[in-house]
Amino acid sequence: MKLHERDGELGLLRELYEGCVAGKGALVIVNGPVGCGKTTLVRALSEQVTQRGGTFLSVTGAASESLDRLGLIDQLVTAMRATGPADGPPAATELAKAAEASGRVPRALMQRLHRSVAELAGRGPLVLHADDVHFADEASLQCLRYLVRRIDALPVLAVLTETAGHDRTLATLHAETLHLPHCRRLRIGPLGVDGVAARLAGHPAAPTAAPETVELWAKASGGNPLLLEALIEDTATCGTPEAVRRGAPMPHEAFRNAYLRCLHRGEPTLLAVARAAAVLDESVTPALIGTLLGADATSVRWSITELRAAGLFSGAWFGHERARLTVLADIPEPDLATLRTRAAEVLRESGAPAAVVARQLLAAHDPARAAWQLDILREAAREALAAGDLAAGVEHLRHASGLCTDADQEAEVIAALAEAQWSMDPAKASRYLPQLGRMVRAGRLTGADALVVVKQKVWRGEFAQADDLLRIIEAREGAGPEQAWDTAGYPPALNRSDPALVRLWLSFCCPGLRHVPRAATRTPAHARTAAEPAGRPAAMSPRTFLTLAADLVEFEKGRAAGRLLPGPGSVTPFADPLPALLFLIGAQRLDKAVLQAERLLDEPRTRRIPLGHALLETIRAAAALGRGDLESAGEATRTALDLVSPEAWGIAIGLPLALAIRAATEAGDIEAARAFLNVPVPMVMFGTPFALPYLHALGRFRLALHRPRAALRDFESCGELMAKWELDSPELVDWRNDAAAALIALGDRRHARERIEEHLTRLGTRPSRARGTALRHLAAVTTPRYRLRLLQEAERVLDACGDGLELRRARADAQAARHMARADGAEVLDSVEPSAGLWDASSPPDREALPAPLAELTDAELRVGALAAAGRTNRDIADRLSITVSTVEQHLTKIYRKLKVRGRADLPAAITGLSEASCSPNVR
Fold first, then answer.
1. Distance, CA of 352 to CA of 292 (rounded, Å)
2. Average pLDDT value over all residues in the chain
3. Phi/psi-derived region of residue 365, left when phi > 0, alpha when psi is between -120 and 50, beta in every other case
4. What pLDDT was estimated at residue 54?
5. Distance (Å, whole) CA 669 – CA 727
6. To pair with 313 at 20 to 30 A between CA atoms, which of 40, 608, 880, 885?
7. Where are the alpha helices (DSSP H) in 555-653?
């Protein structure tokens, strides 16, 4: 090993040797931490001694031989005999006899040793080296003290190396020698940053370390040359190419061996302190080490100082995590378990966080099971879950479940464990459901803990079991499914308890269970018919259901919404994500859902919760698809499906898959859409509303493949299910527009127009994505004269709704309509004001000037009535006004009723003059 930062020390040794050559003896005691180059320094001296013809004799102390009387002197005598014939050294029998005796070494033996050294020095300069002299036995030290006090007039240089920290062992040697004029003490320590840099630059196998990384090497090695050499070796042989290129240290096997070698060659107290520090990890303090070991503070501080001086502690404690792990692995298993258990007790008594104490308990596997351990583990689990560390929370709860002393405790812990595991992987959480179901039935699991079981069974599609368990819970709390809604039409869950909230989304996921009192539909008492008595169960309208559900999500954000899409302070994140997804997306409140989703995704803890992260990505995908950002929608759905396996999605798999299929289909990536369609889904999903977006996406896929008949079947199946479940709302799935598109693709323009007009009638005049899309489809089946006007209105509506995809289509259709009109030379109605009607016509008639009966008719009815009175057939009227015959018939029926006439022949003559009156077929 090449010496660095040792020029002064080596110069002193050379100077003392020159004096030795001149006949002047000396003693030098080289003191320094283990591994810091004491032996290397003396070896450099030995090379010069032998090159100049001197004699160099070396002996080494060892801890295993520290009790062998005169063991070091026996090595010295053997070495002296090996140099050649000499009569001086004591005979083996004499040494053996002295070794067997007790007390002080015979003076005659020490005199014989001195004469032998003097005789050997008479042949030429002599250097005597005793390495690790602190391990020498007392009898050998007695002989060395006798010898070095008498070498000042001999050409003898005695070099003793000792490891720092053994002053008490060598106190007598120091006291009897260091005051003498020919005795010196030489202290060496770890390398500085400059020395580390020089060592790295001078080693052929060392990577080229940039100046900013040299400090990393200095910290990892502590400046200890032995550890530095091991680091260089490990990095050169085991480091990754990237690490070698960056010059970062990569400790491995060589470092481990070197570290343990240094540690075990020191005082036993140093080893104990290092082990305690490794066990305490980030919580380590000198006071805790002392408490853990039962040692006094002074001894602990001294040991820490020595460990830092040796480079075994660098900076605050360990210079590299690999060093700490090395020490941990070196502790025998029984001792480690004892240390861990004791550390947990010490940390708990010192007021350490529960997570820190729990970490020690998990590592200890303590069979004693003290009563306080369960409370600590549960508290640590709550803290971990609040921070989004689900893995730690699950591990704490799993360990706590084995410490429960009664059935109630066990039920609460396993419920919390199932909920935490569900957020990581719902498929794995299902293993706890049978046991938890039995606990609910037995009354051991109540309140919010019992609802965990119901929610997870709903997620898996086990609706009958979920309903049975929920009824048990409701019965215990004095509420039943018929009381899920109060007289104002809002769930009591907003003000009372959670069962009504769970009942709400159970009834949505399983439509057969969704029946509520008439009050929930907010039907006024005077509006009820005789056949509809008060209190009779009735199905809730889809708009009311979605609106109330979304209100529930947003009600009292610190309470209800905090459970669904929680903020940073929530203890159990994403406890009810299923209703949050359905209600916010289904009620077209994506703007609010996305704002909260984006905020949560910016939090590091959210990204550590797989299911929560996947659900938020699903919301993000729905919003992106709604605004026509296909690339973002595809990326978000792929992320959601990668985070949580299809099996773990349960019945909700239909939603992310539908979004993925839609995004791929709209982007023209048919193969990607086909791959998503090949993902297995549970059969039970097709009996839930999650089948609706899936069937809708399947129809869109088939429509893109130019299979409109098959697509129409999918859309109509979707509509049948929505009607059956009383969820027929375009906010949930806009199947009518796509069915019309399929009819147009089939060439059935008449039925397509009827579907579109029916849809527009249902939608009313409120701007919506569905209305904008319907207007675009209506333009496709309308005469060219009115097509552009309809497309401009569609553009206005879609632009207001932010539907980028449909807006682009409407603009493309409008551009095509303009080109076609110019090519045909036809008259085109253009430049419409946003508030105008959909058809160009003269201004509406002045109603004050109309006769009383005619003033009751709408503009549309006036237009139809005028043409009918003029003798036009229903088909003529439909073609002229670009509406269906069915719509004409409906208008005529209303006209006859209002004017109290039997047919068109009885229409008043005054209506004939209004044949140019404005008429919008979609305004009632």
1. 14
2. 81
3. left
4. 92
5. 31
6. 40
7. 560-564, 577-586, 590-601, 610-626, 630-643, 646-649
Rounded to an integer, the average pLDDT of 561-580 is 40
Separation of alpha carbons 489 and 543, rounded Å: 13
From the list 265, 278, 397, 398, the residue with the least C-alpha distance to 328 is 278
Pair of tokens at residue 17 = 């040797």
- Judge whether 3 and 153 are in contact, CB under 8 Å: no
Task: Please return the burial class of 839, using the count of CB atoms within 10 Å of its CB with bins 0-12, 13-18 and 19+.
Answer: buried
Which region among 58-62, 303-307, 668-672, 841-845 has the lowest average model confidence (pLDDT)? 841-845
- Residue 405, classified by CB atoms within 10 Å of its CB into exposed (0-12), middle (13-18) or buried (19+), is exposed
C-alpha neighbours within 13 Å on the C-beta side of residue 541 = 10
pLDDT score recorded for residue 574: 36
Residues 6 or more apart whose Cβ sits within 8 Å of residue 598: 620
Comparing 823 with 744, which gets the higher pLDDT?
Answer: 744
Contact in structure between 196 and 221 (CB atoms under 8 Å): yes
Q: How far apart are CA 777 and CA 361, in angstroms?
A: 67
The three state secondary structure string of 99-164 is HHCCCCCCHHHHHHHHHHHHHHHCCCCEEEEEECHHHCCHHHHHHHHHHHCCCCCCCEEEEEEEEC
In whole angstroms, give the CA distance from residue 191 to residue 71: 33
The alpha carbon dihedral of 876, 880, 885, 888 has a sign of negative
What token pair was written down for 773? Answer: 């899309």
pLDDT of residue 641: 94
pLDDT at 300: 93
Distance of CA 376 to the CA centre of its chain: 24
Position 141 confidence tier, pLDDT thresholds 50, 70, 90:
very high
Give yes or no for residue 482 having a pLDDT over 80.
no
Q: Which residue is listed with tokens 């659900």?
A: 615
Instruction: Give the count of beta carbons closer than 10 Å to the beta carbon of residue 19.
Output: 15
Residue 705 confidence (pLDDT)? 93
CA distance 225 to 393: 43
Question: Helix, strand, coil shares of the chain as percentages rounded to 5?
Answer: 65, 5, 30
pLDDT for 85 equals 56
Q: What is the pairing mode between strands 26-32 and 156-163?
A: parallel
Q: Could you tell me which of 663, 659, 679, 820 has the C-alpha nearest to residue 733?
A: 659
3-state secondary structure of 838: coil
Half-sphere exposure of 243 (CA within 13 A, CB side): 16
Element (H, E) at 44: helix 38-51
What pLDDT shows up at residue 853? 78
pLDDT-derived band at 246, boundaries 50, 70, 90: low
Task: Read off φ and ψ for residue 390, nearest 5 degrees.
Answer: -65, -40
Distance between CA 752 and CA 731 in Å, rounded? 21
Contact indicator for 188, 30 with CB cutoff of 8 Å: yes
- d(CA 759, CA 729) in angstroms, rounded, equals 11
**pLDDT class of 65 with cuts at 50, 70, 90:** confident
Integer Cα distance of 347 and 633 in angstroms: 49
C-alpha distances in Å from residue 79, one per residue of 105, 112, 147: 20, 15, 16
- pTM across the whole model: 0.64
- Give me the half-sphere count of Cα atoms (radius 13 Å) on the Cβ side of residue 39: 14
